[in-house]
Amino acid sequence: MKKWLLLALTLLPSLVLAEDAPTIDSGNNAWMMISTALVLLMTPAGLALFYGGMTRSKNVLNTYAMVFGAFVVAFVAWIVAGYSMAFGNGGAMQSFIGGFGNMFLNGISWSDLTAQSYSMYVFIVFQGTFAAITVAIAAGSVIERMKFSTWLIFVAIWTVFVYAPVAHMVWGGAGALLFDAGALDFAGGTVVHMNGGLAGLVLAILIGKRKDFQKAAMKPMSIMLTALGAALLWFGWFGFNGGSAFGASEIAGLAYLTTALAPAIAAITWMVLEYIVFKKVTLLGTVSGVVAGLVAITPAAGFVDVSGAFAIGIFGSIIAFFGVVTLKKKLGYDDSLDAFGIHFLAGLWGALATAIFAVNDQALLWDGPLKASGDRMGQFMVQLESVVVVGIFTLIGTIVVYYIASALTGGGRVDEESESVGLDESVHGEKGLNL
After folding, report:
1. CATH code, 153
2. Which of 98, 231, 248, 415 has the greatest CB tally within 10 Å of its CB?
3. Rounded CA gap, 65 and 155, in Å?
4. What sign for the dihedral angle of Cα 415, 417, 418, 420?
């Protein structure tokens, strides 16, 4: 009897602690693990194929390597310092950065849980895939002429010192500049698409045009690969937007619906625009419309209903079409694969349109003017503030990071001979498909 009493007294404290300790929600954890895997698929498969198919055959492997390389380097940079800068405690600098207290995930245990009771490590990987695709988007603007070494160094620095502070300002919680202002960005209209698209344009201008830009035909290697890449992007986007509900909830279901609807109506809109302007409907245009619709709905995916998804998809496609077909020609910049026209412009529209079409009761965790009092104009001004702040920060940050990466590699552009031969052979010593 004495033995059993002693055993009970020994076990009692641990039983009490176990009762009080938070327990993992296996449903939410599984949801977030699957969503993370879907988002991961988007970069080294979806975006790489989408961009690779649009590139000339002599540069297709380099294009794939730029995107794949961006993913692996950005993800490592995220673990080393990016996560800490985005979601750590920044102290006096909390408005702009999260600080370096969680470098190499210091202070975070395998058993830590998020507020939604899923693994903190899963959250870290999920957010790391967002960081990786953001910088990979920018690659589309400088394909066929940027040094691979310069690009990889740019990716590492930019992920930590440009992407992470932007993510912190918008998503970093109490004390973060745009989060406190009440800016709505469900899954990354400002943080991912505006950020990556604008960085691409800045790089394209700094590095200069391709030497035969507007002088020779630049035929895509394979539109079929681009279409396959777009399909994989759309598939992965359900994790991108659905996972941003951070649980298997009704809001995730709403995000799933809008992620299916907006790109579908955007693709139809692009087809109609192409037929009106060119009297032809192209596969490249159709899949570009899909991506434009996906980008536009991203900041609003969990906030809008069916009518909002329709409007955001239609106008997102119109704005991206204008950027790709008209604005690029008028201004004369060489955005190789239209990262700016599709990602920045459609992301900008989506960010602003969120204030117009958001259903008030869906903004569950966002304490902005819309949630507080239904003030759409007030929310629009907050959205406008967020796109201006992100735009200015990305513009300045990208310029600084490019010049650092360029100085470290003896210039950011390949030599003329390498550009003429193609970067597959001259940089990688490999040859892609000659289709």
Report:
1. 1.10.3430.10
2. 98
3. 13
4. positive
- Range 193-222 average pLDDT: 93
> Which token pair is 211?
């030497």
pLDDT tens digit sequence for 22-34 = 799 999 999 999 9
Any domain includes 433: no
Q: Is the pLDDT of residue 362 over 50?
A: yes
How is residue 76 written in tokens? Answer: 């490592």
Confidence (pLDDT) at 366 = 65
Q: What one-letter code names the amino acid at 51?
A: Y
Q: Could you tell me the pLDDT band of residue 435, with boundaries at 50, 70 and 90? A: very low
Count up the domains in the chain and report the number: 1
Give the span between the Cα atoms of 98 and 123, in whole angstroms.
Answer: 16
3-state helix, strand, coil in the chain (%, to 5): 75, 0, 25
pLDDT(433) > 80: no
Nearest to 244 by CA among 184, 164, 309: 184
- Pair of tokens at residue 264: 């579908």
Any domain includes 3: no
Q: How many helices (H) does the chain have, and how many strands (E)?
A: 21, 0
CA-to-CA separations, 55 to 44, 120, 140, 218, in angstroms, rounded: 16, 39, 9, 8
Taking the C-alpha atoms of residue 389 and residue 280, their distance in angstroms, rounded to an integer, is 39
At 371, the pLDDT band (50, 70, 90 cuts) reads confident
pLDDT tens digits for range 313-347: 999 999 999 999 999 999 999 999 999 999 999 99
- Whole-angstrom CA distances from 386 to 158, 163, 351, 353, 393 are 20, 14, 9, 13, 11
Query: Is 17 domain-assigned?
Result: no
Contact between residue 169 and residue 226 where contact means Cβ atoms under 8 Å apart = no
Q: What are phi and psi of 217, to 5 degrees?
A: -65, 135
pLDDT of residue 368: 78
For residue 49, being part of any structural domain is answered with yes
Task: Give the domain extent around 43.
Answer: 27-210+220-413
Can you tell me which residue has the tokens 């289709």? 435
Segment 180-185 shows an average pLDDT of 94
Helix axes 283-297, 223-242, angle to 10 degrees: 10
Going by pLDDT thresholds of 50, 70 and 90, the confidence category of residue 62 is very high
Cα–Cα distance for residue pair 159/141, rounded to 1 Å: 17
Of 405, 25, 28, 13, nearest to 246 (Cα)?
Answer: 28
Cβ distance 39 to 126 under 8 Å?
Answer: yes
